[in-house]
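Predict structure. Chain length: 224.
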Amino acid sequence: MDHGELLTESKWRIIKELANQNQTPTDLAKKAGTSLANVSQQLRLLEAYGLVKREGKVNNNVPGKPKTTFSLGKEVIHITFVSEHLSTKKDLDLDFIQKAIINLWLSVKKDEVYFLEKFFVLNEELIKKCHTIAVVKSETEQIDLMLITPHVQEIRDKYSNAKITNIEGKTKNIVCWTHTIEEVEAGIRNHEKYFLDLTKDIKPFMDQGGLVKKIKAIRNEKNI
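Prediction complete.
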């Protein structure tokens, strides 16, 4: 069974929920409006294929036995392609740069794709040195990105502001706001407006260490 056949609607709902944060089977059942037994069965099958994994147990200050939480497992890219000369579906084995480009196609607006793809093709080294890259906001003439990296000063010196022109002659500025994860975490915990605005509605297309999920968890913890 390939992943396209495995991911029925009910399993896909579980995957989408776990993409946002780790959850217990009880949490997932409540959100899906189904029974705990059904969700547990779906999780066992997803776990067997490596798509989800157990993360440990939590009690969230609720009486009773601690409950097992689940998170996403391995990354999978499954493609279905239909054209006059080639029709196929398959799982793709890509490196992290190729995955970033695929995620870019899927997570940003159509009119942003060309500018961002060209920016990263021209600056491949930038992708290699960042843990997380996310769109913060996009306007007519500018796209703002948040970069999380241990190489902050180097990235700021080389890539803070770039102009990209498409084949029609339209130009957009790509502005990079670059920080370590420690700076971002501290800024959110201290309720600094800059970091609260920066992380309010980010759209990640590369997140190697699960840092965006961590940022969202801190915002939820602080009721932001």
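Summary: The longest helix spans residues 36-48.
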